[in-house]
Amino acid sequence: VDLTVRVEGGYSPAEIEVPAGSRVRVTFDRREDNPCSDELVIPDFGIRRELPPFEKTVIELTATPGRHEFKCGMGMLHGAIIAK
User: Fold this and answer.
1) What is the mean pLDDT for each group of 10 consecutive residues in the chain (84 residues)?
2) Left (φ > 0), alpha (ψ -120 to 50) or beta: where does 73 sit?
3) What is residue 58's predicted lDDT score, i.e. its pLDDT?
4) In angstroms, rounded to a whole number, what is the distance separating the alpha carbons of residues 29 and 18?
5) pLDDT value at position 51?
6) Quick one: CA torsion of 44, 84, 28, 59, rounded to 10 degrees?
7) Hey, is 17 helix, strand or coil?
8) What is the pLDDT of residue 65?
9) CA geometry: angle 8, 10, 15, nearest 5 deg
10) % of the chain at pLDDT higher than 70
11) Tell me, what's the pLDDT at 75?
């Protein structure tokens, strides 16, 4: 599953639905230099990545069933990968 999330004042779309067990490739397209969105954290998968301003960053994971929150390093921006 290939998806793109725009990062600009938040995540768009903020919630992504994918089939459980699928290999997911999410491109985070960061279109700002606001320090809040510098970092992406997906705790359920142990992912912590820098998101350089005005660049695309690809994250790959296998979606285990359930709701997996993702957020910025400051915990102000929120989103979720929902695997059903």
Assistant:
1) 97 98 98 97 97 98 98 96 98
2) alpha
3) 98
4) 19
5) 98
6) 50
7) strand
8) 98
9) 120
10) 100
11) 95
Q: By the 8 A CB rule, do 10 and 74 touch?
A: no
Q: Which residues 6+ apart lie within 8 Å of 80 measured at CB?
A: 14, 15, 16, 67, 68, 69, 70
CB of 81 closer than 8 Å to CB of 18: yes
Q: Cα separation of 72 and 84, whole Å?
A: 24
Q: What are phi and psi of 35, to 5 degrees?
A: -60, -25
Tokens of 72: 């910025």
| Lookup: tokens for 71 | 């957020």
Strands of the sheet with 47-50, listed across from one edge: 15-18, 78-83, 66-72, 39-42, 47-50
Q: What type of residue sits at position 24?
A: V
